[in-house]
Design brief:
InterPro entries: Extensin-like_C (IPR009683). Helices cover about 35% and strands about 25% of the residues. The chain has about 220 residues and is of the alpha+beta class. It has a domain at about 80-220: Muramoyl-pentapeptide Carboxypeptidase, domain 2, CATH 3.30.1380. A hairpin with a 2-residue loop joins strand 3 and strand 4 (about 70). The longest helix is centred in the middle third of the chain and has 23 residues, at about 90-115. Mean pLDDT is about 85; it is low at about 1-30.
Length: about 220
């Protein structure tokens, strides 16, 4: 009887070990922490978003391993202009992005292109990666859901204005995209575009981190 119990225990241990080998690394499994938006400052940000008529869903705080995390983040459901690929975003990023879409993108499209923007295309928000996608070095603001990459704009008349194809396109297209870049520099902590380096040839990178010593935006 005792021998039989020992054999059963050994089999269970072996099964557990095999399943662990085939499973995800523990660091890749999001771990829920304390409740989101517990500070007065973070709750004020949510109130400001509601005042902008932005619809959103509050997400739970998660530690995602490797230093990556989504703390006090939301899922934007509607900011007034359809926007693709928005994942978790910090509230300040979402608030500034919504204001940029409303007060910069919409009027600039009418002024320079004579049409409305019906869709903003992005490459997403949260991604657990390092700056410039390297395997080592400083974590990107994307690793904290504090950044968004904007790639193109779809107009009501069917045109698609992209960073890759139109940054150096027709004069009105160039003027439109440069106006958006200029306006973003007043709202975000870091703004990177096609003239920064080849990795940004196809998108604007916006994040809320201020890297300049005087607190001004890093705008390139």
């Amino acid at each position: 009887m005792q021998r039989r119990l020992l054999l059963i225990l050994a089999a269970l241990v072996a099964t557990t070990a095999l399943s662990a080998c085939g499973g995800r690394d523990e660091r890749d499994i999001p771990r829920v922490t304390n409740d989101s938006f517990s500070s007065s400052e973070s709750r004020k940000c949510l109130a400001d978003l509601k005042a902008q008529s932005v619809r959103f869903q509050v997400l739970p705080n998660q530690m995602r391993g490797g230093g990556c995390r989504t703390i006090d983040t939301i899922k934007v459901l509607d900011l007034g202009t359809e926007t693709a690929n928005l994942g978790p975003m910090t509230c300040p990023l979402a608030a500034n992005f919504a204001a940029w879409a409303r007060h910069a993108v919409r009027p600039a499209a009418k002024q320079y292109l004579g049409s409305d923007v019906v869709r903003i295309e992005t490459f997403g928000t949260y991604s657990c990666r390092n700056v410039n996608g390297g395997r080592s070095g400083k974590l990107s603001e994307h690793a904290y859901a504090n950044a968004v990459d904007v790639s193109a704009f779809i107009l009501r008349d069917g045109r698609r204005i992209s960073l890759l194809n139109n940054w150096n396109g027709q004069p009105q297209e160039r003027a439109f995209l440069r106006r958006l870049h200029q306006s973003a520099c007043k709202r975000f902590g870091t703004v990177l575009g096609p003239e920064y380096n080849a990795q940004h040839a196809n998108h604007f990178h916006f994040d809320m981190a201020k890297s300049m010593k005087d607190g001004s935006a890093f705008c390139r």
